[in-house]
User: Fold this.
Amino acid sequence: MVDTVRSSLPDGSSLAYGVATAAYQIEGAVAEDGRGASIWDTFAARPGAVKDGLDGSVACDSYHRYEEDLDLVAAVGAGWYRFSIAWPRIVPEGVGRVETRGLDYYDRLVDAALARGLSPTATLYHWDLPQALEDRDGWLNRDTAEAFADYAMVVHDRLGDRVGVWATHNEPWCAAYLGYSAGVHAPGRREGGAGHRAAHHLLLGHGLAAERLHAAGVEDLGIVLNLAPFWPEDPDDPELVAATDGIDAIRNRVWLGPLVDGRYDDGLLAVAPELADTDLVRDGDLALVQGSADWVGVNYYTPFRTAAPGAAARHPEADAYPGSAPVSFVVREPRTDIGWEVDASGLEELLVDTSARTGLPVLVTENGAAYPDETLDDQDRIAYLRDHIAATERARQGGADVRAYIVWTLLDNFEWAEGYTKTFGIVHVDPQGPTRTPKASFHWLAEHLNSSSVGVGVTP
Ligand code: FCB
Assistant:
């Protein structure tokens, strides 16, 4: 039994800064050191699933270049490095045999981060489910939640003496609804209300892991959610307001209800009757989830404006809100290269609301923008980051307990179904190299962190 790290969350006297990545998006080396297949390997191989038919098999080759990458994180002056651990590297079949070489890799990564004065922040699930578990129905199978908790403990046993801040899931909304309802993310299933079932099992997995991690001494355990503000274009249209409420339930309240109140609310159950099924939601499940997080992570990119159906083009993610009344999504200018509206006031609103709703410390665990990568002089990205950091500070002044702001992302990388076409990095990666070249936003951030004399998290 290793000594566990004491509280590592910053105290909030100033905002801590970090930079984030995720395993499948940067590591490559998918066949190395005994790694098992993940659902993203399988999904990306399906014709038409990912733009240009590309995958994460090489990505940024961070599996071999992590020292170089951590040098960049240190050079930019961010105190935190948020990374994710690939479950199929640790437990290649999802359950059972542990692959020590996978643990060794993250061991080296954590030591290399600490050697540079960075606080490593580990996310246990950033969407790369072992394919062997999907072969047994993935997140639709309750056993996957148990398997996740077992895997979490294996990782903690190895890294728990050096990693202080842990997250269970990254954006479980995407894993559940884009994966099992809309079919645009792995495992690519379009099964309507299945997303609700997957959501419950993801929450259960979080709760089971949280219980055991806390018992092992973890003090700073969170969950990372892509909560979103929804703004009806016509707030006086009762039908639109009701439909928007159903969408809000599936995107936001499905997580916050169990975490804060230990229940799914009635408005949610009205659009997601699956969550009233007592075979799915068993006695004790929601009680386990209630109060299980010490902090909540918010990933924010854009607000969502809703309109009566037919008023605007159908949003590609519309199938990801199964059971809700149809709405259109209106996207105003300016937009980033991925088509997401830029409006920093959405982040301020979300932080204030999330802090009040949860009473927990809030971390901005991801925020950033895709802009075309022809130029290293990415002034648009600088403006985006500057405005969103200012919005975060305004939320703090407005009383929101926001402790950290973490940029998505260090490197141009594998952007899921968009392949390599949408680049969010503050560092350009030449796919031929993959050589890293800091962009203007990297230098801007370094200056911002120096001049505001912040950016240093609490190093365990
Ligand atoms: C989030 C994901 C992250 C990245 C950004 C752009 O939804 O968590 O991996 O793809 O979007």
Observations:
- Confidence is low (pLDDT under 50) at residues 454-460.
- The chain has one domain: 16-232+296-303+338-452.
- Residues 16-232+296-303+338-452 form a domain with the TIM Barrel fold (CATH 3.20.20.80).
- The longest helix spans residues 238-261.
